Amino acid sequence: MENPFPLLLLSILTVLAKQAFASSLEEASTIVSSYGQPKIKLNKIDYCWRAKLLPIWSANRRALAECAVGFGKDAVGGTHGATYIVIDSSDDPIHPKPGTLRYGAVQKEPLWIMFNKDMVIILKTELMINSFRTIDGRGVNVEIAYGPCIVMHDVNNIIIHGIRIHDCVPGKQEIVLSSPGHIVHRLRDGDGVDIFNSSHIWIDHCYLARCTDGLIDLIHGSTAITISNNYFTQHDKVMLLGHNDHFKGDKVMKVTLVFNHFGPGLVQRMPRVRRGYAHVANNRYDEWLMYPIGGSANPTIFSEGNYFTASNNSGIKEVTKRESDSGWKQWKWRSYNDEFENGAFFVESSWGNCAPNYTQSQTFKVYKGSMVPTLTSYAGPLRCTAGYRC
Ligand SMILES: *[C@@H]1O[C@H](CO)[C@@H](O)[C@H](O)[C@H]1NC(C)=O
Ligand SMILES: *[C@@H]1O[C@H](CO)[C@@H](O)[C@H](O)[C@H]1NC(C)=O
Ligand SMILES: *[C@@H]1O[C@H](CO)[C@@H](O)[C@H](O)[C@H]1NC(C)=O
After folding, report:
1. Residue 34 CB less than 6 A away from ligand 2
2. Is a pLDDT exceeding 80 seen at residue 35?
3. How many angstroms separate the CA atoms of 42 and 23, rounded?
4. DSSP structural state of residue 371
5. Of 210, 343, 319, nearest to 269 (Cα)?
6. What confidence tens digit (pLDDT) does each residue in 217-271 have?
7. Is the pLDDT confidence value at 364 over 60?
8. Signal peptide: which range, if any (predicted)?
9. The sheet that has 119-121: what strands, in order across it?
10. Annotated catalytic, 50?
11. Nearest-CA neighbor of 26 among 50, 47, 54?
């Protein structure tokens, strides 16, 4: 008969090891790289798919969909659909070829879209993305650039991860395919990502820069959205939440901006909010040229644990900008645990509860602003290699 003792010992050790691992997981989200590299600290989203028990991202790409935090937490993307691989960077706006990004983007059924190689996709018209879609750029370098870029219109459940979206310009045509056989007319404005009457959206680890209009415009009652871990640079009007003071439908808007790095060369609107609610948490702001956080029409803004570095120009130290001459003292704009460098300051207004009231699955620990340079140090697309920890 076999001696049961080693088995017993093994199971006790396993339990102990699991407990030790679980407690370090809650404490500091710290992992030690197994290849002798220094310790790295990851934010909650990255820890979820880059470091948990099965850390080889390429073995289970769809685990990513469980890792969002904040109001966009429930965006399932293409988790329950087939895998679609983009192998062709060309674009035909009306009769897209199988293998191109547009063909996968407009299909009716859910799809998890990935790419077989590095590519620069120059679109001829805006790319309208259908509901239940993930665009997963991990493992390759994918740029959507030098043409019209991304639109989400009356859709839901979209995840975009690890794509470089830059130098977006208005298209020459106004006719755009929105689903197979269905054509719509669009105004052409040259946004990076335009989100219109859409919900359950998560944009993570993208690079966004130098577009004709906004980098991300989130308008017309769009809600349940998380914008995280992105790197923004070299642009004037960065992010609009609500496009018109008179559009009451934007009151429902709930957006989480977390772990983003607003890098050099940005002018204003990070974000500019109308009517809705924005939780702006643990973002890094480098020297802006006008203001980082602004708004009009009584929006609620909760700025928590951000890291603001003002420029040396004594006229542009203020974080906040209200587009209103009077009445703004009633708007709830609050700052908590923010870190202000080089004379930056936030002008608060109103009183009362400003909490996001997240559900248990949406909630995340917001660190003090001084931690933000570490928490955002991986902002933008990551270099991931299949078969290795990313
Ligand atoms: C918003 O989108 C939904 C589909 O998700 C649609 O039923 C509704 O009519 C749209 N609302 C407006 C104002 O366009
Ligand atoms: C701002 O001033 C500090 C201290 O004089 C200097 O080190 C820094 O380079 C200046 N930054 C810019 C962008 O000029
Ligand atoms: C959170 O709840 C408080 C208290 O009920 C409320 O005043 C506040 O508006 C809520 N915040 C959001 C974002 O819904």
Report:
1. no
2. no
3. 15
4. G
5. 319
6. 999 999 999 999 999 999 999 999 999 999 999 999 999 999 999 999 999 999 9
7. yes
8. 1-22
9. 119-121, 142-145, 164-166, 207-209, 231-233, 261-262, 284-285, 307-309, 339-341
10. no
11. 47
CA distance 252 to 205: 26
Cis bond before residue 6 (omega within 30° of 0) = no
Closest CA to 227 of 177, 170, 270, 266: 270
List residues bridging with 195 in a β-sheet.
Answer: 152, 218
Rounded to two decimals, the pTM is 0.91
Q: Residue 1 pLDDT more than 50?
A: no
- Residues contacting ligand 1 via CB (< 6 Å): 154, 197
SS3 252: helix
Protein residue whose Cα sits closest to atom 5 of ligand 2: 312
Q: Which two tokens mark 363? A: 């909630």
Q: Alpha-carbon dihedral of residues 145, 146, 152, 157, nearest 10 degrees?
A: -10
From atom 7 of ligand 3, which residue's Cα is the shortest distance away?
353
Is the omega angle on the peptide bond into residue 93 within 30 degrees of 0, that is, cis?
no
- Residue 70 DSSP SS3: helix
- What are the tokens at 62? 């769809």
Q: Which residues of 290-305 are buried (b: 16+ CB within 10 A; e: fewer)?
A: ebbbbbbbbbbbbbbb
User: For 129-149, what is the mean pLDDT?
Assistant: 98
Catalytic residue among 50, 62, 186, 269: 269
Please tell us whether the domain made up of 46-73+145-376 is placed in CATH 2.160.20.10.
Answer: yes
Asked whether 32 and 25 are in contact (CB, 8 A), the reply is: no
Contact (CB, 8 A) for 141 and 165: no
